[in-house]
Structure formats: structure tokens, C-alpha cells
Amino acid sequence: MTSENPECPGRASASAALGRLKQAALDISTTAVVLVDYRQSDQPVVYVNRAFEMLTGYAAAEVVGRNCRFLQGNGVDVDARELDKIRQALNEGDEGWAILANQCKDGTPFWNELQIAPLRDDRGAITHYVGYLSDITQLKSNEELLAHHFTHDTLTQLPNRQLLLDRTEQAIASANRTEQSVALVHLDLDQFHLVNEGLGRWAGDQVLVSIGERLRQNLRTSDTVARTSSDQFAILLTNLEQEADVAPACDCILQVVRRPVSLGEVGERSITASMGVAVYPRDGTTADALSEAAEVAMADAKRGGDNHYRYFTEELNRRAAERLRLEERLRVGLAEDRIQTWFQPKVDFQTGEVVGVEALVRWQDPEWGWITPDRFIPVAESVGLIDVVTERVIRACGQLHQRFQRACLSPIAFAINLSPRLFQRPDITRTLLHWFQEYQLPPERVFLEITESLLVDDEVLAGKVLHELRRNGISISLDDFGTGYSNLSYLRSIPVDELKIDKLFMGELTREVGNAAIVNSIIALGHNLGMRVVAEGVETEAQVRYLRARGCDLLQGYHFSPAVPADGLLEMRLENQVMATGSGQTDERRPTVLLVDDEPNVLKALRRVLTPEGYRILIAGSGEQALEVLALEQVEVLITDQRMPGMSGTELLSRVRRLYPDTLRIVLSGYAELESLTDAINQGAIYKYLTKPWEDDDLRALLREALRERVD
User: Fold this and answer.
1) Is the pLDDT of residue 35 over 60?
2) From residue 600, how far is each of 569, 595, 597 by CA, in Å?
3) Rounded Cα–Cα distance for residues 223 and 232 (Å)
4) Which is nearest to 274 in space by CA: 253, 252, 304, 302?
């Protein structure tokens, strides 16, 4: 608004009136208007009209003085290209246009079409910019709906063929950068026309919707499920590290499709599928080429019969055929009762007696020979035969339990591995209890061994099932503990009676500080939580003694016995065989001193000095030998040379400090690395340090003092 000019009062009054009319016109306009001061660096708002207030929810007083960027709010997906169009217009002093996503005062997002134009003074300099905002939120929504209609199947709401090809091209481009694989699977429902013809179109539609939803739910979010024609689907599998990852996914798809579909009063209907698989880059480098290859493979699969898949290449087709043959042999093996159950003993440390067994499946095929569980169990899981295998295991456990009863042997616990696929069945508790009753195996004699992966997928559901199993007397054992899920919070809420230390940590248990630390921690964790701890894969006497000294409860492994048939286990118990657990007890009346040096003359001299003191003397020629001795013997004092081939004295003592903290550690050496010795002393790895040549009296006095401190 301008003040009146005293020299031209009429003209000034007319100008003011005109200004008020413009103001009123802006205020009643239905288009949101904003005016910013171009002369200031931050270009603050100096005016907004009522339409702007209604659109954004902000009062004029809340807007004036702020840059329009505040409308972008938090969490708004800003299109940088559209913003650049506005910035370019401002920089060039020109008009501009863009479509922007903004946010109302209450957080509601809205789309607006923004037009800006410069305002100039009498000299032509830009002083302000005016912006006009049109709300196009509904228009954008309509556009998105229209785009969805053109890219998605109307019945199933899954992507259609066109969107599938677009995503395949994107996946190929990504895989080309990351050197990964992409697989395209075309799926045709077998005999689908019989559903439409026999039950009507509505039943066919229900089958398509159900199968489409199942596929979407059972695949990763990064994969795409599309409906490509009336009875055909396609699945795009992305981010594959290796081609072998395709087969498990295809097995899962076949299993998902053939589950019965509920059709209301009509009941349930099952349908199978034939699939063709093409893999990038071998079978095609474009989406169209990959799709054509998958179509050819699918047609070949349909010619071969229902409910299987074929690869486009002969090599993968050979592998798929081999897997199919393995499935066929497995079915024959189950039908002929060739899948056997063997039992590996679990031994109590205190008594050396067999207190339990793990039931393990074994399969000897008359044509292929012994087939390992890691080959056929995944096949049994993928084709729905794992329940049959598990039932056979429970049957064998029940039969052996009854044989123990008839022989008047004390009962033992049976550990039975529970497949994740079987665990996911909604009726798993009822099913297991039925099998236990049928085969006369008391639930209180059963430990179900589960893996941590069961707890990762759905901790709440897993906890519910496990609590239900526990209420029915079944104990829970957590298998392969320490190799899976790192978040241990589930141990607070999920009932676990037993932790099994994975055999991975057994190999270098008495040599590697890392393995020993993990094992010690698992034992302590289990005991603190009221669980018993089992070490599996125990193969040496040194491992036995180490674990026994750390309070491990049960041991399982080849050091005691491999898995044996039921007759072998029964014979073992009838003979009252007690496994030697290697107590490792030494003469407690004489302290044991371990001397470590690679020079035999030095060892002889040390033995000569210390033997009259009444010590039990052990010797080792290297750090590695010393660790072997320590694993088998209780040693009060260790005296080692510093400079030895392989492992130095300070390195040896650092390991001993972690593995056997009660052993006093002394360095006796004519060669000194001051820095390494200082570090070892500061870290507590070395109790004392003496130099060569030594004084006999000083050495004897040092040992007496060390042993007194150890006792105190």
C-alpha cells in the first residue's frame, strides 16, 4: 500500500484504492498465491492469500518471513529434478513451472502444480517472485491408479507381463554391476481347465487369486510374482549369489502351489504346476530373451509330465534330473523301509555312563550305496516327505525304549532333530504327541533338537509352540549353538533345557584361544540360565579333559562312539559299558612343573635342578607340544624359553593365560625382546622373568614362592 502524495492527492488516493482492490482480488482467489522477496538472500515470504492458508493449513503469520522450503516437511519424497527447474528459473530471472510434493501443517502430504513469475520495479530489476499453487493431489492419485491398471493384473493385483519385463531389465542391469545372477521362472498350472470346467469360472478365479497370494507371501520382497496369462504366472528371482540358489526356490514354489485351495462349500482342491527356468546371463542377456528361454523350458517341462520344472540349459537340466532321481530313490527307500535310525551316545562326565542318545538317519540305497543326510534331508523337506522321515525316527526311538524296558535297563533320553519345515506346521504339537503315543515313547524322555534359525523367523510364534511342547513334557535342545543368530535375547523368553556346542569349535579347542573362549562362555551361559551343556564332535582325550575341567555336562562324539544301530547300542548297555571320560587326575601330592625349551641340554639341566625339590616334571620341545601337554595334564607352573621356532615364549604364555589361567607362567631366556616382554608382563601373561644362565638357588626359591602364592 502507498501513502498519499501531497502534491497529487487525487492520484495517490486512486493508487491506494487500486492497491486495495488487488489485495481483495488476491484474497478471494481460489488459487493459492505466495509472494517472496527476491532481493534477500533467503527469499522470505512476504505475503500469502487465504487460498494458500486453506491449502496448507498455515496462517499467514506462520508463513511470512520463512523460505518456502518449509513446505517440504519431513519424510516428503522430494523430486530433485522438479526442484532444479524452479531453482534454474530463479537464477535466470525467468518464469518457471514444476510439480512438487509438499506437506500441510498437520503432516498430510499433497501434490501441487507450482508456477512462478518475476515482478520488476520501474527500472526493470526483479524485486519479488509470485507463485501460484494448484492442488493436483486427486489428479496424481488418478494417474497412479491408471498406471497401476496398465501394469497389474485386474484379478490377482499382481504385476502383469509388461511390468515383469521392465523389472527383469532392471534386475539384469543390477546383476551386471554386481556380478550376480537373475532367474526367470515361468509357471503353468497343470490341468487348470478341469477346475473351470468342473466347478465354474468363479472357482478358477479363486484358485488363481489364492495361488498368486501364496507365491507373493512365500518369496522374498526383492523378487517379483506376476500373472502373465489366464493360467500362467512368472517369478523373477533376483540377487542370486550362485545358480544353485534357484533349485530350492523352485522346490518351494512347487510345494506352495500344490497345497489345497479352499473353495467354500465345494471343499478343497489341489493343483500342481510345471515350470521352466532361465538364468541370466547364460540363457539370455535381455528380458525378452530370458522370457523366451523360460517359455521353451516350461513347454519342455509340460511334455515331461506334471509337477516339476526344467532348466533351459542341459547342465542345469542334468542337475535337476539328478535331484528328481534322488527324490524318486528316496520315495522308494521309504516305501522299502531302507531309511534307518542309528544312535550316537551322549555320555555323562561324572559317571562315564550313556545317559542319552541322538537319533540320526542313515540311508543305504542298493544302487547308490550310502547317501548322506545332508543330501537327502533337504530333498525330503522340499517335497513334503520330512514328516514321514521324522515319524520313522520316532518309531525307532519308541522301539528301542521298549527294548530297554524289557531288558530292565534304566531309561535314557532320546534327542530327535526337528526340521524347520515340520516345526512350521500348525498342528505340530498334536502330531508329535500322536506319534509318541502310537510308538510308546514317553514325551518326558524326548529332547527335540532345534536350530537357532527357527527362532529368527518368528520368535513369538516359535516361543508359543515351544512352550506348548514343554507343557506336554517334551524338553528342548538348542543345536549348533554359537554358529547362528547373534541376538541372545530369545533365551530369556523361549524355553530351552539344553545347549549343544557346535563341533566347529572342537577342532582347535586346546590350541586356539578364540575357540576356547567361546566354549567357556557357552558353558557359563548355559549354567547361569539353568541349562545343561552338551559338547558334540568330541574326538580327542585332550578335548575331553579340557571340557571336563570347565564343567561341561555331557559329551558326544567319536572319542566315545560313532552312531550305531539299535542292536549295537543295546549291546553296549547290556554289557554295562562305561566310557572312559579321561579324568586327567594327577598325583595331587606333588606339584607339576612343565618345562618348555627347544634345547635338550637346557631341559636336562632344569630337570636336574628341580627334581630334588619333589616336583613332578613334564617337558615339551615347543609351544605346540606344551599346549598338548596342558590339555592332558594339570600343571601348576610353566617355565618356558623365550626364543623358540614357531611359537615364542611370550606368545605361548599369552595363550596359556587365556586357556589355563590358574597355571603360573615364568620366562627363562637368554634372549630378550624388551618390548614384547614388557607388553606380556603388563597384560598379566608373565608372572616372573629370569635370564640365562640362571642361579640354581634363585630358580628353586622362585618356584617355592610362586607355589605359595598360588595356594594362598
Assistant:
1) yes
2) 48, 11, 7
3) 17
4) 302
Cell 481347465 appears where? 193
Q: Is 239 left (phi over 0), alpha (psi -120 to 50) or beta?
A: left
List, for residues 437-480, the tens digit of each pLDDT value: 999 999 999 999 998 777 765 567 788 889 999 999 999 999 87
**Residue partners of 131: CB distance under 8 A and separation at least 6:** 33, 34, 35, 36, 68, 114, 115, 116
Q: Are 236 and 171 a contacting pair, CB within 8 Å? A: yes
Whole-model pTM: value is: 0.53
> Are residues 667 and 686 in contact, defined by beta-carbon separation less than 8 angstroms?
yes
Which residues sit opposite 364 in a β-bridge?
370
Q: Are 693 and 670 in contact (CB under 8 A)?
A: yes
Query: Where would I find the beta strands (DSSP E) of 335-409?
Result: 339-348, 354-365, 369-371
Cell of 428: 505340530
Mean pLDDT over residues 97-123, rounded? Answer: 89
CA dist 496 and 475 (Å) reads: 7
Secondary structure class of 58 (helix, strand, coil): coil
Angle, CA of 505, 507 and 510, to the nearest 5°: 90
DSSP string, 406-469: HTTPPP-EEEEE--HHHHT-TTHHHHHHHHHHHTT--GGGEEEEE-THHHHH-HHHHHHHHHHH
> Residue 411: is the preceding peptide bond cis (ω within 30°)?
no
- Grid look-up 498406471 returns 147
